[in-house]
Amino acid sequence: MISSRTSSDKINQLIKCMKFLARLYRNQGHTHYYQMMADYFTRVRDARQNGDFVVAHTIFFPVEILRAMDIVPMHLEFTGSLMSLFGISTNDLLTRAAEMGLAPEICSAHRLIGGALDTGVLPPADAVVCSNLVCDSAIKTGELTMEYNHCPGFVFDYPFNQTEAADEFIIRELHDVIEFLEKVSGHKMDWNKLSEVVVEVDKQLALIRRINELCKTVPSPFQPQDFLKFLVVDYMATGMPVITRYLEGLVSELSEMVAAGKGFANPERLRLMGLMIPPWHLQGDIDAVLKEHGAVIVYYPNLCDWGQEMHLDPEKPLESVAKKLAACSPMRMFGPLDERALNPVINGVKEYKINGAVNFAHLGCRQMGPTLKIYKDILDEQGIPVLNIDCDLIDATVTTADEVRNKMEQFFELLEDR
Predict the structure, then answer these.
(1) Residue 245 CA to chain centroid, in angstroms?
(2) How far apart are CA 150 and CA 125, in angstroms?
(3) Do residues 253 and 362 both lie within one domain?
(4) Among candidates 176, 192, 155, 175, which has minimal Cα distance to 68?
């Protein structure tokens, strides 16, 4: 493969945007979130000149491991997705991916990585860790990243079923990836630091559960697009004390709103369940149409639900990392679609007083596509209408804001008439 690598300022644009938002939300909890993001991408950008070791990784690899080893993580999928969210053009990267021969049926988040690698948008990586969870494109993306960076890599293998033997297998995989990273980076695992990270993760999961509980209130105080921040927190910055401060501030803010009877939508007429991530580039548009119609998405069972209370033991940090991986809600779509995935949807209808469900059906997602009818059938049994919106997470040419608005408004009319 011939590369046409060129310099790019997209990472700089991302950092500039995050710094602006950190200033905008000064003295509010959100400033911690945006400052974390600015610091994250600044460290990625400057890693080579600072002599840091960078590991590019795909979704669902436990970043706690990298932080405990003082290795700079670079999340491949979310770097591109966040560009899309904050209005930084990605059309040129998708166009370059098409020129490289990446088919449009491939998830756009992974096609974008190909274009970013070929044009030099992504800073260089010293090693790559990819996995088979949940996106089956992740391994190929990992291989492509290794090829462009001429660096070693590790494929983290998750077992298909959740059993006692599978749990033991994951522990072995974690030991193996640590051994690999120690060898290629020269950094040793700091087990005390990993224990400290686990303590923070345990606090953060409890705070997210508390926020989900607050969303059960009528009216719900939570802005729907902020659910995506929980994904960013988990995939990029889990265990960082700054994230604990962000979540603590958010709990305080939302609790005050609940006490005052204030909600995202005033008055609140429709409460919705979300089944998949909305397009990154349409987050503002979607929240706007929700608010206009007194509607609010209050629950994402497949994205931001950590289930029942569980305790992570800092005395057993690696086992705790494995335990958290198993509890991650997207894991429910990996393996048989059994009660792990279905019960949260069924129970969520009553717990969150759901009127309807919206599924943003990302065309490149091979996990969500096969589940559409299954989720629709079980929600039909609960008397809950489902709106499926064909869209793309990143490619803005697939579905426009007006198309999404029209479909959602028609759905709201249906719900209002029930």
Answers:
(1) 19
(2) 9
(3) yes
(4) 192
